[in-house]
Amino acid sequence: MRVVPQPDFDPLIIVDSREQRLLEFSVPTITGTLSVGDYSIVGLEDRISIERKSLNDLVNSFTTGRKRFEKEFHRARSLDFFAVVVESAISDLFGGQYNSNANPEAMFQSIMSWTAKYKRPFLFSENRSIAARIIQSLLGKYAHQFLKAADNVTRAAQRLQNHIPKEYHALDFDIKELEADQIMC
Fold this sequence. Notes:
Layout: E1 13-16, E2 29-32, E3 39-41, E4 48-53, H1 55-62, H2 66-76, E5 81-86, H3 90-94, H4 104-118, E6 122-124, H5 128-162
């Protein structure tokens, strides 16, 4: 049976229990513990995570909290997808509209450097509402692509199964038992 999610598929979002400023989503959420990031998809926590930051949090993460932030990015390397969604317009960063003496250009260059180094995007939004929308959409699109890929694997396995002689259809089937000339592709 082929399972293809609808384009408007919304996964169940898991919110890290340490997240202090919860976003409001238009889909149900549950609270749990994530090893990295603040938001993920139930069942796919080891594949995707999104970190939410206010502009002040982001600047702190590149200044006084840099070592901790870098450890988080190292943990995120094992994920298929990781992004940082910033609850602010990038023009606020350039305008220095944060509680720090950090140079806006230095902050921007740090963001660009980490984007290139870790291959993880920083996405700026105008406000918390748009940040929530971005996060929900990213999680939904990832879930859709994941299920689509799983469906493709299932269909490929079914096609392969059709080319295996019936005597090898037992539940304890071991592909190593087949000789190369018995598999017709």
